[in-house]
Design brief:
Helix content: 10-25%
Strand content: 35-45%
Order of helices and strands: HEEEEEEEEEHEEEEEEEEEEH
Number of helices: 3
Distance between the termini: 83 Å
Number of strands: 19
Radius of gyration: 27 Å
Oligomer: single chain
Shape: elongated
Structural class: alpha+beta
Length: 284
């Protein structure tokens, strides 16, 4: 009996540090909380600092917040589908991450998020001014945000007005113009009703100025898009494609307008679409 007690004590002394270490690592690993949402109600999330950026990992989840004037809350909605995640960054750089799931019946509609729920800061502090070099490449959050927001706009059935033009079975339309943060998003559709495929050479956006005076003339200034989403190289016969151009925000005076120039590669089915300053200055 005495030998058994001694052996047990030795075993405890040997393995206790490993057990304590394992328990410590279990305590430090943070499990993400789950937030449930559906498509009939708004789930409100209130944060300790104003929201600067909010991104969902799947298109069946939409997180909306005030992008012009930063506010403390955002609204989450969901469509039936697989679970995803929500990443929110506050004005002070605090990062919050959650698992989001669809649920038909919700028991909770409001979440008040404490600062203790933050998983870190987008600009972590380096102790003792020691620079730590990592092999990971920095994530281009701007591109990621453009992709998610453009995909969201293509899913919406929203139109700003009737803006289209046609030639020889090729129809180009600007369905929507949306202002977000510092950018204008142009939701564009090209429909090929002809019997020939359409090879796209380029689609340029220019600002046209009508010169006043006795000798009236037109001057065009090409504008380079910040980002192009789902721009095709070919539109096959009887095919309709939709894509988005992202431009730095601008406004126009009465003597200016936007011109989209659609040019066919090795062909002559070229179209110009003119957009009045009224649509540019009053986006959705």
């Amino acid at each position: 009996m005495k030998n058994y007690i001694i052996i047990s004590a030795l075993l405890m002394c040997t393995f206790a540090p490993q057990l304590c270490s394992a328990q410590g690592s279990m305590r430090t690993s943070k499990v993400l909380d789950t937030i449930y949402a559906n498509d009939t109600k708004n789930v409100a999330l209130f944060f300790p600092e104003p929201i600067r950026q909010g991104i969902t990992g799947s298109e069946n989840f939409v997180f909306t917040y005030n992008r012009e004037n930063e506010q403390y809350f955002g609204l989450l909605q969901a469509k039936p589908g697989k679970e995803s995640n929500l990443l929110v960054i506050n004005r002070n750089g605090s990062v919050f991450s959650y698992i989001v799931k669809y649920k038909a019946k919700l028991s909770k509609l409001n979440y008040f998020i404490p600062i203790s729920s933050s998983i870190g800061n987008e600009k972590p502090k380096v102790k003792d001014s020691i620079y730590i070099e990592t092999a990971d490449k920095s994530v281009d959050y701007s591109k990621y945000y453009y992709e998610k927001f453009c995909g969201y706009l293509l899913d919406r059935n929203q139109r700003i007005g009737r803006i289209n033009n046609e030639t020889e079975g090729i129809v180009i339309s600007v369905e929507n113009i949306v202002f977000d943060k510092e950018e204008l998003y142009f939701v564009i559709q090209i429909e090929n009703t002809s019997t020939l495929d359409y090879d796209l050479n380029f689609l340029n956006l220019s600002i046209e100025t009508r010169q006043k005076g006795k000798r009236k003339s037109l001057q065009r200034l090409y504008q380079e898009p910040i980002f192009k989403y789902n721009l095709p190289s070919k539109i096959r016969e009887n095919e309709t494609v939709r894509f988005v151009y992202v431009m730095s925000k601008f406004s126009l005076s009465n003597d200016r307008r936007v011109i989209f120039e659609l040019n066919e590669k090795d062909g002559e089915r070229n179209i110009e679409l003119k957009i009045s300053h009224r649509f540019i200055n009053n986006p959705n």
